[in-house]
Amino acid sequence: MLIAMYHGPVRGTTGKLTPMFSPEGPTLRELAVQALSSVERGYDLLAPKFDHTPFRTPDAVLDAVGTFLDLTGPYDDGLDLCCGTGAGLDVLARVCRRSVTGVDFSAGMLAVARERLPDAGPRARLVRADARALPFTSGFDLVVSLGAFGHFLPAELPGLFAGVHAALRPGGLFAFPVLAPPRPRSAAFWMLLGFDAVMRVRNAVWRPPFVMYYRALRFGQVRRELERAGFRVELYALPGFGHRADGSPRARMIAARRPAPADF
């Protein structure tokens, strides 16, 4: 996953592998080992240095999500789906009055997230589980996810969204930010296309697979699967990220609500 995103120097003046992205970040060798592992094992290995890579959810995104939830809340009980090292726990703690839960299937990521729990307060807890088989039933009125959807194949969306729907109470909200795809003439478009191509070749010739694709899921498909799972879907522009040349927002919040009985 991460190796294809590296553009810095491989070796320093001493001949040793240099850290990636920042002095505290992973080295190229560490990323190579991670990329040749399973998703779970790869993140276990990367976890201690994950927050020093560009793949941690940026503060600008966290702030935008928090602002949106402030306007639509407050909430009682919140779940951070695929919480990783827990960057979103503070956001949930701010908008949830009763409890905050982070769920992830990487023990390594949860170990780092556990260090954040004091900041989120005594109401916070962590659960190790696969997002495709959530162990919750009507336990939350808010579920958020921050940047995890590249790890799910299109065929997995029905089960994933059904699990989130079951974890929410009637009237509960499933919210996550999405960025507008880059234009075909942009360098970003070709970079992401190339990244996905490399990952497909890697998964065709190497086991276990590492599922991480930037272009596997389409917005229309995500919306259809949310609606099939029983959600009512609305879109909200995130104004802090500006607009594209055609006037469309660069970033949106998808707000998928599980209808309450009175809504029918």
From TrEMBL:
<dbReference type="Pfam" id="PF13649">
    <property type="entry name" value="Methyltransf_25"/>
</dbReference>
<feature type="domain" description="Methyltransferase">
    <location>
        <begin position="79"/>
        <end position="172"/>
    </location>
</feature>
<dbReference type="InterPro" id="IPR029063">
    <property type="entry name" value="SAM-dependent_MTases_sf"/>
</dbReference>
<dbReference type="GO" id="GO:0008168">
    <property type="term" value="F:methyltransferase activity"/>
</dbReference>
<dbReference type="InterPro" id="IPR041698">
    <property type="entry name" value="Methyltransf_25"/>
</dbReference>
<keyword id="KW-0808">Transferase</keyword>
<protein>
    <submittedName>
        <fullName>Methyltransferase</fullName>
    </submittedName>
</protein>
<dbReference type="GO" id="GO:0032259">
    <property type="term" value="P:methylation"/>
</dbReference>
<keyword id="KW-0489">Methyltransferase</keyword>
<keyword id="KW-0949">S-adenosyl-L-methionine</keyword>
